[in-house]
Amino acid sequence: MAESDKGRRTIRDVAKAAGVSIATASNALNGIGRTKAETVEKVRRVAEEIGFRPNALARGLLKRRSHAIGMITNDTYGRLTLPMAAGVSEALVDHGVSVFLCATNNDPRLARLHLESLLDRQVDGIIFTATRLDLRPPPEFAKLPIPVVYAFAEGPKESVTFHPDDAQGARIAVEHLQGLGRQRILHITGAEDYKAARIRADSYRELVGSGSSVMFGDWSEEWGREAVAQVLARGSARPDAIFCGSDEIARGVIDALRDNGISAPEDIAIAGFDNWEIVAKQTRPPLTTVDMELKELGRRAGLAIHQLCNGESVEPGQTLLPCSLVVRKSA
Amino acid sequence: MAESDKGRRTIRDVAKAAGVSIATASNALNGIGRTKAETVEKVRRVAEEIGFRPNALARGLLKRRSHAIGMITNDTYGRLTLPMAAGVSEALVDHGVSVFLCATNNDPRLARLHLESLLDRQVDGIIFTATRLDLRPPPEFAKLPIPVVYAFAEGPKESVTFHPDDAQGARIAVEHLQGLGRQRILHITGAEDYKAARIRADSYRELVGSGSSVMFGDWSEEWGREAVAQVLARGSARPDAIFCGSDEIARGVIDALRDNGISAPEDIAIAGFDNWEIVAKQTRPPLTTVDMELKELGRRAGLAIHQLCNGESVEPGQTLLPCSLVVRKSA
Hints:
The structure is a homodimer. Chain A is of the alpha/beta class. Chain A has three domains: 11-54, 434 Repressor (Amino-terminal Domain), CATH 1.10.260; 68-164 and 294-323, Rossmann fold (3-Layer(aba) Sandwich), CATH 3.40.50.2300; 166-291, Rossmann fold, CATH 3.40.50.2300. In chain A, 42% of the residues lie in helices and 17% in strands.
C-alpha cells in the first residue's frame, strides 16, 4: 500500500540531479546566499523537472507562518457555512493559503478539540462563523494569540466582524412589494430571540408604518402554514402581500394559501429571505427573495484574515454587507 | 492589531522558565536524549504552565508527517459533503489529524490549485468525494505520491472506495411498501445516466417482478409532479405505492397527489430516498425514506485514510455500507 512519503523528492535528489551541494541547492531554491544566477536557474529547473516540492512545513517554520487558517462553525447543515467557505477559499487560494474546516456541531468538547488542534498546527488565523448573528464564540476565543475574524457571528467588542445588512435586506423586499402597489403588507417571521428576526422586523415596521403587523414564530414551513391559518381565521381585511422572514416560512405560506384557493402573486404577493435555492426555486410559483450574498461575505472575511495574518491593520468593528433581491414569480 | 506570532511561547521561554538549556528543554519535550526523568518532568510541567505549544510544524518535519489530510469535493451545496465531512472529522479529531476542506465547484482550475496547495503543504493523504457515485477524479489523481480514499465517488481500479449500498437501500424501501400489503408499486426516479438511479431501479425491479414500472426523469420536485400528472392521465390501474428515487422527487409526488385529492399513505403510500431532513420532515405527511448514513460513510473513509497514512494496509476495492429506513408517516 501507499505510504505517506512514497515517491516524495527531497532536496538531496535535487542537489544530485543538478550536480551541486545540498547547501547550494537549498540556497538556490530559497533565494538566499550568493549562488550564481545561472546555478539558481539550473537548480530551479531541475527541481521542477524531477517534481520536487519545496517543503511547505519547512518554509512555515522559517517564516513562522503555516499559510493555513482555521474556519470554525457550529453549522452542520452547511446551508450557511458552505457558501461562506467557498468565498473564504476563493479569497485565499491564490495566496496559497488553505482552510481547515472545523464543524463543532454545537458540542463544546469538539469545539475545544478543534481549537487546540488548530493552535497546535499554528494556523495563522481563525474565522469563526455561526448559524445565527448573535451566537458568541466559546470564551477561549477572547485570549487567542492569533487573529480572529467573525463572519455571521457575534464577535467581542472591537473585533473584526462581517454581517449581512439585514435591515437593508428587509427594506429592498418591502419596497419591492410596495412598488407593486401592495397596501396591506404582513410580516411573518422566525423566533423573536434571533437578532436577525428583530432587525428585519424593525426595518419592515419603519417602512410600513401604522398598518404594520409582525407575527413571530419559528423558522419552519409549519409555522408559515400555521400563521396563514391564523390570518384566514381572523377574517378581517386580508393582507395583499406577505414578507416572510425566511424561504422556508414563505414556502409554508404559499402552500397554505394554495390549499385555500388563494393564489400568489395575484391575490397575495409573497417575498422570502435567504434565496436558498432548494426551497426558493421549488415553491409554486418560484419565490422572490432576499439573497444575503454569503459567498461575498466569506470572501471579505477571507481577505480580512489574510491582511491580519500579514500584520496589516484592519479597521475593527462590524461591517454590514448589502443584500440583493432575486425577483422570481411570487412578487 | 494582532500579529501572527504575538504571544506565542517558544522553546526559549520554556528553557528560561525551567532553568535549563534550550537543548535540554527540547530533548525533554521530544522525549529524546539522556535527560534525567525529574528534569523531563519539570520541563514538561513548566511548558504546560506557560502555555507552550510543541510546534506541530517542527514535529511534522521530523516525522515527515503533517497530520493533516485534504478532503476535495465537487459539491458546493454541502448536502452530501457536510455530513461526510462531519464523519471524517469525527474519525480523525482524536488522532490529532485536521482536515483541509477544498470545494472545487466543478472548476478544473480550482481543483488543480487546491491539489497543488495540498501537496505543497504535504498533507498525509486525500479523501475525494463527489455528488455522484460515478464522478471520476481529475487525471492528476492517478499519480499522487500520497494515499487517496474515494467516498461517494468513482475511484480508479484497486483504489479504496466507500459507497452507500444503493441496492440494499432500495430493497428495504420496497420491502417496507410490500410489507404494508401494497401490490402495485411504481418507481419514479432521477436521470438514468446516474449509476445510483440504475442500481436502485434494478433492485426495485428484482423485488417487484412483472408488475414493475420505472419512470426515469431528473432529481427535482418538478419531475415528481410531472410524473404524477402522467400517471393520472393514463387512467389505467393506479399504483397503491410509489417508491421515489429522492426525497425531492417524493415531495413533488406528494404535492401533486394532494392537489388531485389523493392522500398519502391512505390512497398511495410514498417512500423517498436520502432522508434529507429539510425535505423529508416537511412533506405532508412527513416522509418515510432511506438514509444513506453519510456520516458513517465519512467516518469509515476517515479511518481508512488514517490507516493508509500510518503505512498500514487497507483492503483495496469498493466497500458498500448499509442504508437504513427512517419510517415517518407517508408509508
